[in-house]
Amino acid sequence: MKLTINGKEQEYAGDEDRPLLWYLREDLKLTGTKFGCGVAACGACTVLVDGEPARACMTPAASLAGKKITTIEGLDTPAGKAVQAAWQELDVVQCGWCQSGQMLAAAALLTATPKPSEQQITDGMNSNICRCATYHRIRGAVARASEIMG
């Protein structure tokens, strides 16, 4: 089966129940997607599937044939670039474990809603947990990324 990951076609021949997370990390060596909780609760493993956030720890790789999967390594959309710039500008990262998932969620939010209100940012980012509680910096960076996008 063929999967499109970061714009590149990949051949997947693994177990149909194997989570995408482990295919990305172990087989493709795309280690930016992190393991957090393993039950789709924290968001550290967030990737984009056809532009929508998805939890790679619980999404079977075999279920994604014909879908476009984006990991942090392939985040090169206008919203993604703005998010990356804002994250650096505002020095968002503390430990960094959740940040790839946070950034992908932010890019999806900004693609769908380029000029989000504070409440939309809070609502759009509330399913991703940050152990270091840098939520104020994350929300600020999402707002800044929106400004960068113009």
Write the layout of secondary structure elements.
Elements: E1 2-5, E2 8-11, H1 20-27, E3 46-49, E4 52-55, E5 68-70, H2 78-89, H3 99-112, H4 118-125, H5 135-149
Parallel strand pairs: 1-5
Antiparallel strand pairs: 1-2, 3-4, 3-5
Helix pairs in contact: 2-3, 2-5, 3-5
Characterize the structure shown.
This protein is of the alpha+beta class. The chain folds into 2 domains: 73 residues, Ubiquitin-like (UB roll); 72 residues, DNA polymerase, domain 1 (Orthogonal Bundle). It has a 5-stranded mixed sheet with strand order 2-1-5-3-4, covered by helices on one side. 41% of the residues are buried. The mean pLDDT is 97.
Proportion in helices: 25-40%
CATH level-3 fold name of the largest domain: Ubiquitin-like (UB roll)
CATH class of the largest domain, named: Alpha Beta
Q: What global shape is seen?
A: globular
SSE pattern: EEHEEEHHHH
Beta-strand content bin: 5-15%
The structural class is: alpha+beta
Give the termini separation: 39 Å
Low-confidence stretches: none
**In the CATH hierarchy, what is the superfamily of the largest domain?**
Beta-grasp domain
